[in-house]
Automatic annotation (TrEMBL), chains A, B:
One of its GO terms (biological process) is tyrosine biosynthetic process. Belongs to the prephenate/arogenate dehydrogenase family. The keyword Oxidoreductase applies. Signal peptide: none annotated. Gene3D superfamilies: 6-phosphogluconate dehydrogenase C-terminal like domain, NAD(P)-binding Rossmann-like Domain. It is an enzyme of class 1 (oxidoreductase). Pfam families: PDH_C, PDH_N. Its EC number is 1.3.1.12. Pathway: Amino-acid biosynthesis; L-tyrosine biosynthesis; (4-hydroxyphenyl)pyruvate from prephenate (NAD(+) route): step 1/1. GO terms for molecular function: NAD+ binding; prephenate dehydrogenase (NAD+) activity; prephenate dehydrogenase (NADP+) activity. Keywords: Amino-acid biosynthesis, Aromatic amino acid biosynthesis, NAD, Oxidoreductase, Tyrosine biosynthesis. This is prephenate dehydrogenase. InterPro entries: 6-PGluconate_DH-like_C_sf, NAD(P)-bd_dom_sf, PDH_C, PDH_N, Preph/Arog_dehydrog, Prephen_DH.
Length: 305, 305
């Protein structure tokens, strides 16, 4: 008697709205993993769509994001942070009107604004909406910079609500694991505070330092004589200014708190330098080195896993 | 009639005082280039000397730095910044007493303190003393981390005084070029200001950020969810705390100025975020990206040259 075979769930049709670095890399990762059915794509910029098709990042173009509601199983909003809220509002309203059961997820760097918009519009985050954020990126941008390995050994944070559909959450989790990421879930407020500290604040500091030096009377010399430590420290200042303006505005509250914590500590360090208090400096530098070395070890473990 | 052949200048005997990352790497670079005669070494730590001989970083150990005055053509002080002034004072005094013509140079990250010490002691920087600073390093330290390629495609800054012996300057320049570095000369005060901006300030900011996050109530999460941008941004916070305490104290004046310039700019950026002034943020971020991209291009050119 032949064994009964469970029918395999077919690979989902995935629509990528916004064909930039993240959207393009996700499409490539899913294709390389064989974990997507048809890959649909949509972008305001016609040349991004053309490049996406030419590079076989996507299979077929959609004329508008709304078309995805009827044609895709999972819709991934990969537009800039500020545009994501309007798009999510429009798609969830249209999904409610048409009865679409497509799962909608996103990749925006800040989650609080999207959640607030959903609460205002629907009284809750709709069950088929799973807000998310892959913690990966590059100082390069655009679909031309997309690569399938971008999420490998990286985390994707999902921020499900109490009423989030369990199947929708599982499908979005599966999508990111298929793309090579590990998936963790946390509250929206935790996400925004953690990202303010580890990503948004460092970007502000890097932009701030480079602009300070560029304006200084010795600007030319400064860059001429800078070395490897400076190169690494300021790499993120080459990131897309529009994206980071939007992130800074979208995560204003948590970012201001992070800046204030940092500034308070910098004032203390400055006072120690001014006073020639070597013990205080050594204590801070040593504590920082210990924490940074632990972080390194953690990253190395993750890379091997 | 045979052509007259100029006798080649024999490769100098070089004494490395302080067998750490920099001293060890210089010795290895000179050996690999075939540009040193005997390589002598000296360190307070007996195991550093033993490791230096075992790894063939140096050929022979000196019992004390003073022995180098009679045995070496060039003495390179590779001890920590704070120890360099005392050592330089002792060796220049002993050189004056014994009539040694050995060239003395150093690698300390801050030059002002050494210059001031020489002025106080001798009324000038002695002609055979050439203060210098290779702009290279690593967050690793110790002779075990030494590698011959450390200075390749990097700059070494020399800060000759008006009365510096031209031959001594040429010999020290040659030494660093043999080790793979490009050599530039500038005033001590310029050096200390430029390094405060491009190196000492970034280290303080990186230590400050990592320590701020480590102390925060969400410290564990923060490091768990940090990604590549954070890793690069904070790499220099793994640097040797004792070395950087000394640098911060030795370059106090220029570092405080650099911190204040930065803090002033951070206050302006914070106000723009608080006010939701996207135009101001975009202007700063764009200017910084432009400057950083130019710096990248400059570095790429240097790497190819």
């Amino acid at each position: 008697m032949p064994l009964a075979v469970m029918p395999e769930k077919p690979a989902p049709t995935v629509a990528i709205i916004g064909l930039g670095l993240i959207g393009g890399s996700l499409a490539l990762a899913l294709r390389e993993a064989g974990e997507a059915g048809e890959l649909l794509g949509c972008d305001k910029q016609a040349d991004a769509v053309a490049e996406g098709i030419a590079r076989r990042v996507i299979d077929r173009a959609l004329q508008s994001p709304r078309e995805a509601l009827a044609q895709a199983d999972i819709i991934v909003l990969c537009v800039p942070t500020m545009a994501a809220a309007d798009l999510l509002a429009d798609l969830t309203q249209e999904a409610a009107r048409t009865g679409s059961s497509a799962i909608i997820t996103d990749v925006a760097s800040v989650k609080g604004g999207l959640e607030a918009r959903m609460l205002a519009q629907h009284g809750c985050v709709p069950p088929r909406v799973v807000l998310g954020h892959p913690i990966a990126g590059s100082e390069r941008s655009g679909v031309g910079a997309a690569r399938g390995g971008l999420f490998r050994d990286h985390l994707t944070i999902l921020t499900p609500a109490e009423n989030t559909d369990a199947d929708a959450l599982a499908d979005v989790s599966h999508l990111w694991r298929a793309a090579g990421a590990s998936v963790v879930c946390m509250a929206v407020s935790t996400h925004d505070r953690v990202l303010a500290a580890t990503s948004h604040l460092p970007h502000v500091l890097a932009y701030c330092l480079v602009d300070t030096l560029a304006r200084s009377p010795h600007g030319d010399d400064v860059f001429r004589f800078a070395a490897g430590g400076f190169r690494d420290f300021t790499r993120i200042a080459s990131s897309d200014p529009v994206m980071w303006r939007d992130v800074a505005l979208a995560n204003r509250g948590a970012l201001l708190e992070a800046i204030d914590d940092f500034a308070q500590h910098l004032i203390t360090l400055r006072a120690a330098i001014d006073a020639g208090d070597g013990d205080a400096l050594l204590q801070t530098f040593t504590a920082a080195k210990t924490a940074r070395d632990s972080f390194s070890a953690l990253q190395a473990t993750r890379g091997r896993s």
